[in-house]
Design a protein that fits this description.
alpha+beta; Beta-lactamase Inhibitory Protein, Chain:B, domain 1; five-stranded antiparallel beta sheet; about 25% helix; about 35% strand
Length: about 100
């Protein structure tokens, strides 16, 4: 009987831990207000936010994504995402920041 309780407890802890996690890399979102379309350079973005979580292209323009998501087995989740599109001169063409986290 004691072995069954221990197995049940271990299984419960494993399920709880499996329901928690993070995705991406946290970044300093207080710097988002400093981004200016057609002014801020790619090197300034790299200096302020570090290496992006994802890199890609959209319509042949470089696109960087900064993303940080937290998941919890208790039901609370939070996320923040910054997507930046650069022009051919590596200057910010446009960006979008979304967050469900209190700042």
């Amino acid at each position: 009987m004691k072995k069954n309780r221990l197995t049940f407890f271990g299984f419960s802890v494993l399920l709880f831990l499996a329901g928690c996690g993070t995705m991406g890399k946290d970044f300093n979102s207080s710097q988002v207000n400093n981004i200016q379309n057609h002014v801020t350079s790619q090197s300034e973005i790299l200096e302020n936010f570090g290496t992006p979580f994802k890199e890609g292209t959209k319509n042949e323009l470089a696109m960087w994504t900064y993303q940080f998501d937290q998941y919890s087995a208790l039901g609370s989740t939070s996320s923040k995402d910054l997507i930046i599109l650069f022009d051919k001169k590596n200057i910010v063409n446009s960006y979008r920041f979304t967050s469900t986290r209190p700042e």
